[in-house]
Amino acid sequence: MKETQILLVDDEVIFTRNLSKLLEVRGYEVTIANDGKSALRAFGETKFDVVVLDLKMPGMDGIATLEEIKKLGLFTETLILTGHGSSDTKAEADELGAYAYLNKPCDLDDLLAMIKKASEKKDYTEKRDDLDRLIKT
Amino acid sequence: MLERVRLNGEAVEKNGDHKHKTHYARLFRRFVLLTVVCSLVPLLLVGWGINIHYTRFAKSRLIDSLQTQLADHRKIVELFLLERTSRLSLIAQTHSRDYLSNVLNLNTVFEILNRQDGSYTDLGVINVAGRHLSYIGPYDLMDKNYTNAFWFKKVMEKGIFISDMFMGFRKVPHFIIAILRTEKGQKWILRATIDTEVFSSLVESVQVGKFGEILLLNRQGVFQAAPRFSGEIMGKAPFPVREIHKGVKIYVSESDTNEKTQRFARQIIAQTWLEEPPWLLMIRQDYAEALNEVNHANKVTLIFLHLSALIILIVTILITRHMITVIKKRDLEADYLNRQFMQASKLASIGELSAGVAHEINNPLAIILTERQILLDEAGQLPDLNTDFKVQFLDSMEQIDVQIQRCKRITHNLLRFSRRTQSVIETVDINEFIGEVVELMEREARTSGIKFSTDLEENLPTLRSDPSQLQQVFLNMITNAMDAHDGMPYGTIRIHTRSAENNRGVNIGIADSGSGIAPENLAKIFDPFFSTKAVGKGTGLGLSICYSIIQRLGGDIGIESEVGKGTEFLLFLPLEPPRELKESLMTKAKGEMP
Question: Which residues pair with B83 in a beta bridge?
C-alpha cells in the first residue's frame, strides 16, 4: 500500500521538524511548509492525502490557505491543528470543509488517529468519485 | 459574582449619594431662582409700578376735582352775597330816607326784591340812633334799639357790612346785610336779613359722596350753615379753624373723630377763605371713601398680581422638581450603564489577555510534547540502555507529560474564562440547575429562618439557554424572595418546575411567604430603579435585569402577589432560544462544543 502523503503547514519550524520526524517514523510521507504560499507551491509537486494546517501564521494565514487549497479542487482532507483555537475560526474552518479541528498541544495518538480517519475519508471520497465518473461514462 | 456586582453598585451609589444630593439641590435652586428672576421679578415690578402710578394719578385727580368743586362753591356763595349786597346798595343809593321811611314804600321795595328769589326775610331803615324808621318783616322789631348791636357799630364804621350768623332780638339764627347812606349830611342805614334757609340751601344741598359735606364757618369756628354731619348752625365746629390763607388748601386730617356722627378718622379736607365776609368754605370727605374705587381697583389688581406670582412660583417649583426627578433618573441610568460597560470592558480585556496568554503557551507546549515523543521513540530504538537510566528516563518522560497536561488544563481554563464573558448557549437541565442554586443560597437562607421546598417535575426536558445569565436570574429572584421576609422570624420559599403546554419549554414558579406587594406597585415592579426597599438597600435594578434577561432568552416572566400572604414569580423558558439570539451566538456556541 502506498504511503500516506502529509503536508505539514506551520510557522513553528521546530514543531514541523519534530512532528515530521515522528510521523515519518510511523510510516508517513511528510512535506513541510512553513507558510501558506510554500504550502500551495507544494501542491504543484505532490498529491497530498492529508494537510495538517496551523491557523495563525504570518502572511497568508491558515483560513486563507485552506480557501486556496479548496480552489485547487483536489482530493485532500485538512486537519486544523492550532494553539489559537476559537469558536469563530472553528466555524470558518468547518464551513470550508476542514475534516477536524484540534487544539495544541495535542497527543500524538489523537493526531495519528485523526490522520488515519481523514486519510480513509479521502480515499473513500476519491473512490466514490471515480465510480460516479465510471457510471456516467 | 452576582452578589459582588450588586454590592459594588450599592457602594458606588452610597458614596455618590451625598454629592449627588447637594448637586441636585443646587440645580433645583438654580432653576427656581432663574425662573423667578426672569418671570416673577419683572411681573411684580411692573405690577407694583403700575399700581403706584395709578394711585398717584387717581389722587391727583381727586385733588383736582376737590379744588374745582370748592372753587365753584366759593363762587356761588360769593356771588350770592355780592348780588344781595349790590341790590341793597343800589336801593340805598337811589332812594331817599324819607321815601323808604314810609312803610308802604318800603313794602313795595321789599316785594320787588323778594319777587325774584325770596331770599330776604325782612328789610328795615334805621337811623343813627339805632331805631327803626320803618320795618317790613315777620318780627316786631320797631321798638328795638340797635346802638349796642355789633353790626350797627361795624356798619357805621365800614359803610357796608355783612354779619356772621347771630341770634339777635328774634332769637333765631340769621345774618344781615347793612348799608350806610349819608344823605344831606344825615346818616341812615338800610338793613336786610337774609333768609337763613335760602342761604343755607346753597351749602347744605350739596352732596359730597356718602359721608362728605360742605361746611361754612366764620373765623371763630362757628357754623354759618347747617352742616350734614358735623353739628348744627351756630354750633361750634369740633375742630379748630386755622389761619386765614389765600387760595385753596388741601390736606388730610387724622385726628378729627366724632363718634356721634360716626365720622371717620381719616379725612381729606379742601378749604378756602371767602374775602367778604371772612368765612371758611370747607369740603370734608372721608379719605377711604374718596379713594374707595382706587383702593378697590388696587386691591383687586394686587391680589390678582400676587396670586399670579404665587401660581407661577408653585408651577415653577413643581416643574423643576419633576425635571430634577427626570434628570436624576437619567443620571442613575447613565451611571448604571457606565458601570455595566466598565464591568463588561474589564472582563473583556481580561478575557482577551488570558486568551492571548493561553495561545502563546500552547505552541511551546506542543513543541515540548513532540520533543518528548521523539525522545521516547529514540529511546525505544536503543537496546542496551542502562536500566537505572531507563527507569529514570521513563519516569521523567511521564512527569513531563503530566506537567504538559497540567499546563494544558490551565490554558484551556483560561480560554474558557475568556469565553464566559460572552453569552453562551448550552444545554441546561433546569432541575439540576435549580438544585445548584438552592444549595448555594441555603446557608444564607437558614440564618434568616427561611426554608426551601422544591417540587421538581421528573423527566423535564432540557433547555438550550445561557446558564450564566439564568444563574443571575435565579440568584436575584431568590435573594428578592428572601428579602420579602424582612422582619419575619421564619418563612418558606417554594420552587416548582413543570413542562409547559405542548412541550414548548419549562414553567418555573418561585413563591415566597413574605410581605407581598401592594397592587399599585405590581405594575411597576419590573421598571428600572423601582424599589420598595429602604433607600440605599436596593438599586431597583434586580428585577428589571431579570426581566430583560428572560425576554432576551425568549421566555416570559409574570407575578402574582397578595399583601400579607406572599408573592409568586412565574417564569417560562423556551426549549430553544429565539432565532435572533441563536444567530448571534450560534457560531460561538459551536466553538464551545467539545
Answer: none
